[in-house]
Amino acid sequence: MPSKRKLFAIFGNPVSHSISPLMHNYAHKGLQTGDCYTRYLLEDPDRLKETFLKLKLSGVNVTVPHKEAAFRACDEVGGIAQQIEAINTIVLEDGKLIGYNTDAPGFFKSAESFGKINSVTILGAGGTAKALAAIFKEKGIKTTIINRSQGRLDYFHERGFQTYTWESFKPFASDLLVNTTSAGLQDESLPAPKEIISTLLENTKYAIDVIYNKNTPFLQMAKAFGVPCKDGSEMLLYQGVIAFDLFYGHCYAQEEITRFMKKAFI
Predict the structure, then answer these.
(1) Digits of tens for pLDDT over the chain (266 positions)?
(2) 184 phi-psi bin (left φ>0, alpha ψ -120 to 50, beta other)
């Protein structure tokens, strides 16, 4: 059991909407760690490491738009994060910042509840899209990425993924449609032109928006098309459980962590 009280946090911009502190603090209380988790509005991504050390944190979660900056800030990177160059969990180990990505396994566990998935379409090409594309490829699932412009798509094209910009888009079918953009988080915008999303929804079985606790315009459209869908709450829960597990070096059962963190969604 940890002897010295530890402080954890989530870095993001915006970050006031995050329920990660609630999730983690339920786990801290339930597991009687004596530790605490808070949120921090990080405006300058280049000061991530400096801020981490200044606040004397033991670990941090990183949300949009800083996941790629977090990769650059780490001294070492583990697991799937090495491939995707995007970090959402940092742990202080022996004075070094060690980076991981728990988004990918967290999302996959959430998506599995729909049933067998053979093909996926991802809207957006940022850090979360990289994480999901990597784990889908690892699982042998055909993955296509659609983004406003070509720039960020080069990363995916170079790794053998099918890619489309809004201008080059052509209709196709897939089992799962995922919004990884922040469209709809603080406004009522869509992650792509309505015509494109309509076509995609007509040709998909399921839909997920990684944004949580909000009935986004994307989810509203999915429901209108009769497509079974859900927000990112399960992904958030599962990635949080894995992150907490990393913070404490696997000394608590994930089932126990999950049981306490679920209270944040009641």
Answers:
(1) 445 899 999 999 999 989 999 999 999 999 999 999 999 999 999 999 999 999 999 999 999 889 999 999 999 999 889 988 889 999 999 999 999 999 999 999 999 999 999 999 999 998 889 999 999 999 999 999 999 999 999 999 999 999 999 999 999 999 999 999 999 988 999 999 999 999 999 999 999 999 988 999 999 999 999 999 999 999 999 999 999 999 999 999 999 999 999 999 98
(2) left
Residue ranges making up the domain that contains 210: 105-231
CA distances for 107 relative to 115, 180, 193, angstroms: 14, 11, 25
Per-state percent for the chain, helix, strand, coil, to nearest 5 = 40, 20, 40
Task: Evaluate the CA torsion angle 141, 146, 150, 153 in order and state its sign.
Answer: negative
Write down how long the chain is: 266
* 137 and 25 in a common domain: no
Q: 134 in a domain, yes or no?
A: yes
Write out the E strands in the chain. Answer: 7-12, 36-41, 59-62, 76-77, 89-93, 96-100, 119-123, 142-147, 162-165, 174-179, 204-209, 229-230
Query: CB of 9 within 8 A of CB of 37?
Result: yes
Question: What's the CA gap between 163 and 214, in Å, rounded?
Answer: 28
Q: Which of 263, 259, 219 is nearest to 241 (CA)?
A: 259
Q: pTM, whole model, 2 decimals?
A: 0.88
Which sequence positions are flagged as catalytic? 67
For residue 237, the tally of other CB atoms under 10 A from its CB is 22
Which amino acid is located at 83 in the chain?
Answer: Q
203 and 247 both lie in a single domain: no
